[in-house]
Amino acid sequence: MSAREETLARIRRNRPAGSHPLPDIPDFAPLVGDDLVIEFGERLKRMGGRIGSPEGGDAFASVRERLASAKIIASAVPEIDGNRDLSQVALPKDLADVDVAIVRAVFGVAETGSVLFTEEELKVNSVAYLAQHLVVLLDPANILVNIQAAYRRSDFASAAYAVLHTGPSATADIEGVLIHGAQGVRSLTVILLPRG
Amino acid sequence: MSAEDESGPRDRLIHPDVAKPSDEGERGQDGRRLDHAEATTRPIGAEPKIKAAREPQPRGARIRGNRPIDQAEAAERFLAAPLHQKAHDERLWDLRKKRDTAAFGIPEWEELRELASAIKAHTLSNLDRYLEEFEANAKANGVHVHWAADGADHNRIVHGILKDHGAKTLIKSKSMLTEECGFRHYMAGTGIEVIETDLGERIQQLDNEEPSHVVVPAVHKTRFDVAAVFAKTMGTDPENDDAHYLAESQRMHTRPLILEADAGMTGCNFAIAETGTVVTCTNEGNADLSGNVPKLQIHSIGIEKLIPRIEHLGVFLRLLARSALGSPITQYTSHFRALREGSEMHMVLVDNGRSERLGMEEFWTSLKCIRCGACMNTCPVYRRSGGLSYGATYSGPIGLIIDPTFNKRKYSTLPFSSTMNGSCTNVCPVKINIHEQIFAWRKVLAEEHQIPLLKQGMMKAAGQMLSRPAAYRAAIGAADSALRVLPRFAVYNPLNTWGKGREMPDSPRQSFHNWYKQNRMDPAKAAKTEKGGIE
Amino acid sequence: MRIGLFVPCYVDAFEPEVGIATLELLERFGLDVAYPFDQTCCGQPMTNTGCHAEAAATEALFVKNFAPFDYVVAPSGSCVHQVREHLTAIPQTEEVKAVRGKTFELVEFLHDVLKVEEFPWAEFPHKVGYHSNCNALRGIHHARPSELNKPAYSKPLDLLSKVRGIEIVTPSRPDECCGFGGTFSVFEPAVSAKMGYDKVSDHSRAGAEYVVSSDSSCMMHQKGCAARIGVPLKFIHIACILNGVSA
Question: For B62, B289, B307, C122, which has the most beta carbons within 10 A of its beta carbon?
Fold first, then answer.
């Protein structure tokens, strides 16, 4: 008998006694206030992320300096031109030299300060991890109230890869000292910008 | 004082964006000290910095084949390293407090625990159906699905996939399942290099030591220990024990290995039956690097990780990071469902004793475990012994009830390394009755004579004496002083282990029993009883 | 109401005043309290070590001694937890089930059964830290444990709040186990003692003069630990305070 058949047979033989119905999940009252933009920003900041504020009509004011000092910019959004074309990347590892990547989030989650990407937004998935810094565009109208609401979206069933980012890569494996940029991006800045 | 004034050598490697704040922790955009991920709420470190005062890292339990692990002996050595023990205890207690704050911030917390527990009970009692559903969906997504009956099977399957692709290097994220399978040890003999990419797990790999905790694998090490390991294995400055310098060095060292890896591997936090999705929760993004950079990706899945639907993630995710870290969520929650262009994706469903455990009436609910580590953080014994003292893949309270299912003799001592205080049960996000299962294991082990003969003999003698009032009173009363007999008797121990760390209790003038006889019984009846007592 | 007084072996041998205080306190409420003379132990040392068969005769003796009473009261949450949850080595006859169901720990008996509103004779003008025995706390639910997001309550602190002059101080880890753990204290002595040192140090830092508990076993361990490392704490059973002992 194959491992598959053996395992399934043992499971059937060893089925726990009693009735264990699948519970319905109630709709929990949101833990955040009505202003989802403010709530999202507050939580994102507690998770090490940044909110970029516009200045003088420039939505990208907060990251202008970073963009100016970056040698390689990979943009997956029409709002900004980079100098690395994500549609021409042969291998995921070829993005290792990217200084700043700019991508748009599908939605944000106010309860946690998270943003969702799928392979659609990222173009090349590895860009969100190999880049030194990540700039995320988020339409303020696309902020969901909580994680429960997020998992009602269809994206998780349709995307090959879907990922919630909540701030940048982080570790505290050495004596609990928090360090950003453990293996992935060193910073994550969300710019609230309606979709064009 | 700026970071640069403080330490010279760190400038050589450190990225300019990683400026060291005054207490070494990161600060948020609003200037507040951050404590997300597994970070502490306040600086907790092994002091002093003076090199002469540094103590060697205590090592774990001595493994002697199949002989029972002597956890007490290893714990005693851990306690003999007070810098390590104190930092370990404070760090994990801090995680417990962060967990409390996070849990108390959610009014429906206890209801979520109930739901999570019920969803797991349901899934486990229909596991055959959900596994078949998962398999069918994963296959439809273009994923190669494999079934491994045990750890050896898993290792052979993964090795086979790697061989077929001519892979020479494999990057992987942290997985307790692959630890359980002894995957790294197996691969050491194959010529294929395995590179752990979680910082804590990488530290442990480089030090040739097992992880001591399911979430923070190197929590038992001080930064001095890490500096020594990195100096030896990566050539870092042995005198530089700055956490930022060490972490950055590791990033620089590991990045090329990630880029050149032929294959990537992750574990699995949740496997969704309705979509065939593997979900991982990490803080470093290393699971995403493992899954998104190499051409070949492999996900190892313990069969108990199944949950029916995506909507159930809304329950488990709210519990997992809060229980583990006190954070609302991990930095990355990654959903691997189907292949990306140009990649090949494999999923290995691993049994390794789980389907047998399902049939253990008193212990099957331990399969609900989501590996958050909250029971370890709250366990007063674990915090004072270190995870390696258990000499098993799973340490702390959950380890005490899982490990004996793998090897009853070797881990027969572990259920006794507990005061059964019950705090573990209360923090468990899926409501496993951990301390009751510890109690139940003791019974099973005693019945199957897996406890030391000496211990069982003492209990037999105690039971005989305590069931015969006359013999009992004669033993403690004949000497007219309970102290001579009772301390040893009361603690049932031929050696004076009580007195080693504690003072003996004072001996009162008379026992309650004798006081009652003198003061509350009529003399005639008392005399009669006295006579009976001596017989 | 006939009460059978169970005096655990530790109390009998080392803290007879706790047994006396429990007896006197119950009598203050006009109860008919008897001390069955042939009593020994609840069986906990054996069952906690997994040796249930070895506990059977002791458990049978316990049931025989206490079957005639309306209630069994003991000044120990740990022993009461054993009787209520773990006295299972003998056949569960109606008599056995009845004894298990009517066995109460002193604090819960005063709080839940007698519903005592005042202890006019009790005065204790000292700073005290309360030590929750883990079986009392999480086994028979003396109080809301710190882990649970549920409404807070504490039966022992409710009772102590009725004592004149008492001041409760709270250690930084309010319900951390002290490391006694029954036979754990001798089979794993190093960890047990370290937990005890940390516990008494925490109480001392919180400013406690006295540690108060409903369990003598934990206090015997903590007392030994405090004496060993020189922490100037005094230990007293809650029965003595509620009975109006003057310290």
Answer: B289
